[in-house]
Task: structure prediction
Amino acid sequence: WPNSTKSWVVFGASIPERCPFWMNRAPEKNSLGAVLSLRRADPAGAGYKTLLIPQNDEMSLIRAMECGVLIYDGDPTFFSDNHLGGGKQPRVSGVIDARFEIASPHNLLRVFLITRGERRHDGEISSSPPPGWPEKYATVISPEARHYRLYAFTASFELKNF
Result:
């Protein structure tokens, strides 16, 4: 279970802060309600000896989702996998690349997408990356993608409790 994205929880006011737990057994019911059996993670070998979870503290389930670009039916396609059993699901075709960065001073998740137009030209028409695409990722644009008009998009999302 430790490798499952379905079994991790965190308590908002615990000390040490943001110490994740994983459910090492399925929840059991008794006369008081459901009982969870949790094990504490030990991030980077911190060796926590004590842990405080205040009474009536709120428990939050940690979920993960995988996103990226795969070739689907011969076309680069943005996919997602929320690990609920459906596997990698194609979402949007024509996405050439997707990059994700965490800007730690501000707890932001920055998402960079590069997409292509519908019409394939005979020659290379996008010899340089489109405005807004980070220069450090410019070399990963495939020669085939350069036969299309390329567009770059950037969005930032605040990461709560990160």
User: Anything to note?
Assistant: The mean pLDDT is 83. Residues 116 and 150 are 5 Å apart (CA to CA).
